[in-house]
TrEMBL record:
<dbReference type="Pfam" id="PF01789">
    <property type="entry name" value="PsbP"/>
</dbReference>
<feature type="compositionally biased region" description="Low complexity">
    <location>
        <begin position="1"/>
        <end position="23"/>
    </location>
</feature>
<feature type="region of interest" description="Disordered">
    <location>
        <begin position="1"/>
        <end position="33"/>
    </location>
</feature>
<protein>
    <recommendedName>
        <fullName>PsbP C-terminal domain-containing protein</fullName>
    </recommendedName>
</protein>
<feature type="domain" description="PsbP C-terminal">
    <location>
        <begin position="91"/>
        <end position="229"/>
    </location>
</feature>
<dbReference type="InterPro" id="IPR002683">
    <property type="entry name" value="PsbP_C"/>
</dbReference>
<feature type="compositionally biased region" description="Pro residues">
    <location>
        <begin position="24"/>
        <end position="33"/>
    </location>
</feature>
<dbReference type="InterPro" id="IPR016123">
    <property type="entry name" value="Mog1/PsbP_a/b/a-sand"/>
</dbReference>
């Protein structure tokens, strides 16, 4: 005789089976996405990277003192002075570490009075040098001095002739010594000149640079310009 199951029994069994099988969670469709960094952070990072890639190296921030003796052509041995000539130095100025000294010939020293010169090895026309002339007890008027300096310096003549602006002034140091200071803003180049008289000599210190180097190294070049002074009595 066949056994007849009641519907309630079947439903009860199905419900029990359903309760026995726990519900499985659905796997995530996408992995969690990290939110992008704020716009300010992106801009800061980009600017920092651009600065590292495009910044031009300027001159060294370290200097050494050059001691010049202004020796006559007859007593000249090839270099105007060095750290061993402190006791006999007539003038001093700062030189950036890494710059090279150019050997001045006796002929050049005897004709235009160049006593010392240093230049940037990466750009030889970026340089500083000193000339001197004997037999000057005092300074003539500023315009006369500048014109006389240009007579023996063709590059200076051209710079003055093409200058957009020439500025000159007088100043005295703490000992009362008089200095003439010139700044020449020419086409393609810039020049700073300091002139003074001491020990019956006229000293002229020059700092020159092409316009691109001037724009990049102006602070350093002005430091060189301001570092020049004569030593001892005047």
């Amino acid at each position: 005789m066949a056994t007849i199951f009641s519907p309630s029994t079947i439903l009860s069994s199905s419900a029990a089976a359903t309760k026995a099988s726990p519900k499985q969670p659905h796997p995530p469709l996408l992995a969690a996405v990290k939110p992008p960094p704020p716009l300010a952070t992106l801009l800061t990072t980009t600017l920092a990277a651009t600065t590292l890639l495009t910044a031009s190296p300027s001159l060294a921030d370290a200097y050494h003192v050059y001691y010049g003796t202004a020796a006559s052509a007859a007593n000249y041995g090839g270099y105007g002075g060095n750290s061993d000539n402190k006791t006999s130095a007539e003038y001093v100025y700062d030189v950036p570490d890494g710059w090279k000294e150019r050997l001045v010939s006796k002929v050049e020293k005897g004709t235009n009075g160049t006593d010392s010169e240093f230049y940037n090895p990466k750009k030889r026309t970026e340089k500083e040098y000193l000339t001197y002339l004997a037999g000057f007890r005092q300074l003539a008027p500023k315009d006369v001095i500048l014109n006389n300096l240009a007579l023996s310096d063709v590059d200076l003549q051209d710079l003055i002739a093409s200058a957009d602006k020439v500025v000159s002034e007088e100043k005295k140091d703490d000992k009362g010594q008089l200095y003439y200071v010139y700044e020449i803003d020419g086409v393609g180049a810039h020049s700073l000149i300091t002139v003074t008289c001491a020990k019956n000599k006229l000293y002229a210190h020059f700092v020159k640079a092409p316009s691109p180097e001037w724009s990049r190294d102006e602070e350093t070049l002005r430091h060189l310009h301001e570092s020049f002074k004569t030593v001892g009595s005047f």
